UniProtKB/TrEMBL annotation:
<feature type="domain" description="2Fe-2S ferredoxin-type">
    <location>
        <begin position="2"/>
        <end position="105"/>
    </location>
</feature>
<dbReference type="InterPro" id="IPR012675">
    <property type="entry name" value="Beta-grasp_dom_sf"/>
</dbReference>
<keyword id="KW-0408">Iron</keyword>
<keyword id="KW-0411">Iron-sulfur</keyword>
<dbReference type="InterPro" id="IPR001041">
    <property type="entry name" value="2Fe-2S_ferredoxin-type"/>
</dbReference>
<dbReference type="InterPro" id="IPR018298">
    <property type="entry name" value="Adrenodoxin_Fe-S_BS"/>
</dbReference>
<keyword id="KW-0479">Metal-binding</keyword>
<protein>
    <submittedName>
        <fullName>Ferredoxin, 2Fe-2S</fullName>
    </submittedName>
</protein>
<dbReference type="Pfam" id="PF00111">
    <property type="entry name" value="Fer2"/>
</dbReference>
<dbReference type="GO" id="GO:0009055">
    <property type="term" value="F:electron transfer activity"/>
</dbReference>
<dbReference type="InterPro" id="IPR001055">
    <property type="entry name" value="Adrenodoxin-like"/>
</dbReference>
<keyword id="KW-0001">2Fe-2S</keyword>
<dbReference type="GO" id="GO:0140647">
    <property type="term" value="P:P450-containing electron transport chain"/>
</dbReference>
<dbReference type="GO" id="GO:0046872">
    <property type="term" value="F:metal ion binding"/>
</dbReference>
<comment type="similarity">
    <text>Belongs to the adrenodoxin/putidaredoxin family.</text>
</comment>
<dbReference type="GO" id="GO:0051537">
    <property type="term" value="F:2 iron, 2 sulfur cluster binding"/>
</dbReference>
<dbReference type="InterPro" id="IPR036010">
    <property type="entry name" value="2Fe-2S_ferredoxin-like_sf"/>
</dbReference>
Length: 106
């Protein structure tokens, strides 16, 4: 299992174990991470699973696709480190990943 930590806006750290092949959003929903809404269920059509990827993880996670970039236009407080968690597939290389949840979703 791959360990992923979500940091909420109040600084709470929620440590999870994710199955490879699942998405980070699915992991957040299963673990009831506050602030991850995921209204579209992972179809990349709502931008309510927005997260920030730490600088030391950005290369491993990779950048957004064109479709994801378009959806990020609807997210709140987008930064260079912004990703939609529904578009990040869990894999061994992401073991230890730390993601920050924005103060609100788009």
């Amino acid at each position: 299992m791959t360990k992923i930590t979500f940091v909420t806006t109040n600084g709470e750290r929620i440590e999870t174990e994710a199955e490879n092949g699942a998405t980070v959003m699915e992991t957040a929903i299963i673990n009831a991470v506050p602030g991850i809404v995921a209204e579209c269920g992972g179809a990349c059509t709502c931008a309510t699973c927005h997260v920030y990827v730490g600088d030391d993880w950005r290369e491993a996670v990779g950048g957004p696709s064109m479709m994801e970039e378009d959806m990020l236009d609807f997210a709140f407080d987008v930064k260079d480190s912004s990703r939609l968690s529904c578009q990040i597939k869990v894999r061994d290389e992401l073991d230890g990943l730390v993601l920050h949840v924005p103060s609100r979703q788009g």
